[in-house]
Amino acid sequence: MILLYAMWITHFLMFTETRWISWLGIIVVSQNILESLFNSHLSDYVEGWIYVLGVGIAGSPPVAAAL
Q1: Is the dihedral of CA 7, 13, 17, 18 positive or negative?
Q2: Are 30 and 9 in contact (CB under 8 A)?
Q3: pLDDT tens, per residue, the chain with 67 residues
Q4: How far apart are CA 14 and CA 63, in angstroms?
Q5: 2, 22, 28, 60 — which has fewest CB within 10 A?
Q6: Please, which residues have CB within 8 angstroms of residue 63's CB and are 6 or more apart in sequence?
Q7: Residue 31 and residue 29: Cα distance in Å, rounded?
Q8: pTM of the entire structure?
Q9: Is the Cβ–Cβ distance between 48 and 54 less than 8 Å?
Q10: Nearest-5° Cα angle at 65, 14 to 17
């Protein structure tokens, strides 16, 4: 559980800019956290890939800007 919380915190901190792509990333992370309170879908195929692709696509511009 500690690693899961650390991952979510890291992903939230990655989306601290005010651009629309950062807002999209915050929405994806928030949706994952809220849904995991009711369902354990992290091992489900579709929901897991939606999170991976959402954070990957939304996280690319902030990470590239930091480099």
Answers
A1: positive
A2: no
A3: 899 899 999 999 988 888 888 899 999 999 888 888 877 665 677 888 888 898 988 888 877 777 7
A4: 7
A5: 2
A6: 14
A7: 5
A8: 0.78
A9: no
A10: 45
